[in-house]
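Thread: sanity check for a docking pose with zinc ion

Original post by kr_44:
Hi all, I'm comparing my docking run against an independent structure prediction. Below are the sequence and the ligand SMILES. Could someone generate the full complex and paste the structure tokens? I mainly care about where the ligand ends up relative to the chain.
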Amino acid sequence: MKDQIKLLIQLQGIDSSLDAMRQEMSAGPQELEQMKLETDELEQRLTQIQANVAEMGKKKRDLEGNIEADSESIEKSQGRLQQVKTNREFKATQKEVDDLKKRKRDAEEQLLALMEELEKTEITQKELTAELAEKKTGCQAKDEDVTKVNISFEKQIVELTEDKGKIAAAIPPELLHRYNFIRDRREGLALAGVVRGTCEACHLSIPPQEFINLQKAESLMTCPGCQRIIYWEPDIT
Ligand SMILES: [Zn+2]
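Reply from moderator J.T.:
Ran it for you. Here is the predicted complex with zinc ion included:
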């Protein structure tokens, strides 16, 4: 029985390694996918902000143009003010000048507010651009990492599967079946060591008589708590 337990322990070691590798191999691409989604989202936000900046830039140029045109109109109207002949004409031209001045002031105020908003948006744009570059670099690195891990693990999996086959061939089929049956139902762990009378997997104390039997290792025993195949691990002091 001791030899069979030894084989099972080796088998469990290989299976656990294989499980861990396969899990990492599937987790990597999932993480990468998530990172790519976040990058896409950021890219969309940045595109929107770039469009906003462009729109504000156009508005700014329009306002500046209007202000300049109004300045010219004001100057012209003020020039005419010197040449008017009647009081009525004077009043009308004066009103024109006042209206133009008011329109210009409004446009200047709008321009000021717009420039402030534009400045803020440009800062956000700069930050997002940097963040996006960082995310893209991260994706690239992760992509390379996933590929590297896959290549390395695939090689190891082939080797371990070969070892596993050799060990499994030496285990009686019925026992192997039992091992696999438990493994399927116990998170991949069919075996548990018992240290100082306690099952390492579920931490149940093995009854004293059973613990004595376990140390003798004459028959295959299972943990009363988790039903895993148990074996005695001598205390290391
Ligand atoms: Zn247990």
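Strands lie at 191-195, 198-199, 221-222, 229-232. Hope that helps with the comparison, let us know if your pose agrees.
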